[in-house]
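Model the whole thing, not chain by chain.
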Amino acid sequence: NAGVTQTPKFQVLKTGQSMTLQCAQDMNHEYMSWYRQDPGMGLRLIHYSVGAGITDQGEVPNGYNVSRSTTEDFPLRLLSAAPSQTSVYFCASSFGGTGGYNEQFFGPGTRLTVL
Amino acid sequence: AQRVTQPEKLLSVFKGAPVELKCNYSYSGSPELFWYVQYSRQRLQLLLRHISRESIKGFTADLNKGETSFHLKKPFAQEEDSAMYYCALKGNQGGKLIFGQGTELSVKP
């Protein structure tokens, strides 16, 4: 099992460019989510999905889009990159939500810089 | 409001000293709390969850509803405990996790 994989590992964008951060998991997890990690802010939830075809907004969704066409994949799209989106992005997945004994498994992260 | 607060950005101790990483939460209802850890150059991983009442790598955490706290403790710190620690609360909307700001633990020899 590869677990949760993310590509690319590093990316530099210019303001206004768009791009897609890829996330895939091979554990047949229903729940997937995207976080951004900023110094002093912890991890903040961007978007999440409770299953294929179902997505919802988290705490900081503005400027990002997601879709969930398959159980395995949960890409995050930056529509028009801004310097405020410079961050480290983590994808995570778990069985049936985040509570109880449902451990969230995290990807290695994507470090994004927007100039 | 649902919120997790970790008041210390950095905690530095010597090897063998006791460690306590503080976590306070704000939540109406019965909270579910977790500690996640991120070692250098590794991905974030679950350390322990309060419902298990377990001890992992010598760490324990007790939920104190009166003080709304879930502090992480270890009696004798080891150098390999140096890492970033995040306290997390299960939110009541969509099962999302709410993370604290994180505390960097540095254990010196």
